[in-house]
Amino acid sequence: FWSALAAGVTLATITGLAYAELATKFPQAAGAALYVNKAFRNPVLTFLITICSLSAVFAASGSLATGFARYFGELFDLVPALLVTLAFIVVLTIVNFVGITESVVVNMVMTFVEVFGLIVVMGIGITVVVQGDADFGVLTEFTAEGSPVVAVIAGVALAFFAMTGFENAANVAEETINPSRTFPRALIGGMIAAGVIYVLVAMSAALVVPVGTLAEADAALLEVVRADVLPGSVEVMLKIFAVIAMIAITNTTLVSVVTQSRILYGMAKEDVVPRPFAKIHPSRRSPYVALVFSALVVAALLVIGELLSNVDADLDIVGRLATVTVVFLLFIYALVIISCLKLRGEGETGDSYRANTVLLYLGVIGNTVLLGYVVYDDPRSLYWVVGLLAVGVALYLAQRLTAGTRGTGAPTGGGA
């Protein structure tokens, strides 16, 4: 359980080293698409990376919205989950429409609440240890059938989902003072700090609740609260923690909604998708067309997921969309690390940050192996992957058809 999360954190941090090196060489707001374009000079590959970035954020938003509905159900179990997820996406779209400044303020407040919730879980674990009720043997016990290595790899795939999002930091490198020095420290330091917290939370949860119970729960961290370690009413604490969990999910989803609309906006400005996506509201200064379209795509994913869940009761839509997100990101991460190695010597100055070469090669291998395992373990996720890629291709074809003679050739990418 915790070891899989630790492995996922390690792989994500190694990938972060490549982003740190590339962001200090090319401090521009384009991220993975820029790095791949500079390394390979292949516009089709650049376009693919951009669409994968957009698709990953769509899938992540759907997964998070469904997770939000599960915690919401702990408070109000009479409201249909699909209605909750759709309303959740609509509300966040409106928040983003109001403006990016307001979104950032809301994000900061929710971050503090999110950290508080994680501290509470660690506090429960510490209490169990102090009371002498902790069985540390569970931290080294493998209950899964088959090879422990395969069991860890299986856990890493979804644990990796918890660390995604760090790649978006590369988009603000150009706004950083002395990026060659400060950006790598901030990015890697932040990832290590977040990773340590996540691992401690996972260990605390495992000490309080059987791992099997956590694995089967729809809202795993609520099982820690149900252990009745904290003083006061369990029912009251469950409701409080459900609210904290919903705030934490809202925080992450808010960033996703911002990201997906801005990627579409950037692609429209580069004439990769239809120009209306670049429209800005005159008073709110928000890309409202991109926001509405993004909300519709995520809503479509949620509706399709609900329909499929009615047919297949064993389908876990949260896990499926998380897997789809990981498939896209592992492909992107592997190409970014390869781009980092390929661009060695280009754009470097005396104070340029340089990641450890051996670690980068390990990162390529790790991301590739994990990508292969994820696809092997859940081949049906590829249907979702192809569907989301088709949306991107359809937008590109729509742009080519409406552009007439304006612009020819393959796209060079947008924001990613």
Notes on the structure:
Mean pLDDT is 85; it is low at 407-416. The protein has one domain: Up-down Bundle (Amino acid/polyamine transporter I), CATH 1.20.1740.10. The chain has helices spanning 2-25, 32-40, 43-75, 81-98, 100-130, 148-163, 179-208, 211-216, 220-226, 234-269, 288-311, 317-342, 357-377, 381-403. The chain has 416 residues and is mostly helical. Helix content is 73%, strand content 0%.
Which keywords apply here?
single chain; disordered C terminus; APC_superfamily; 0% strand; 416 residues; Amino acid/polyamine transporter I; 14 helices; transmembrane helix; mainly alpha
Distance between the ends: 32 Å
| Spatial shape | globular
**Got a strand count?**
0
User: Which sequence of SSEs, written as H and E, runs from N to C?
Assistant: HHHHHHHHHHHHHH
> Strand percentage, roughly?
under 5%
Q: Could you give me the name of the CATH homologous superfamily?
A: Amino acid/polyamine transporter I
Average per-residue pLDDT, rounded, comes to: 85
Per CATH, which architecture? Up-down Bundle
Which fold name is given in CATH as the topology? Answer: Amino acid/polyamine transporter I
Secondary structure category? mainly alpha
Residues in helices, as a percent range: over 70%
Number of helices: 14
Radius of gyration: 21 Å
Number of domains: 1
Main CATH class:
Mainly Alpha
Query: What ranges have pLDDT less than 50 throughout 5 or more consecutive residues?
Result: 407-416
The profile of the biggest β sheet is:
none
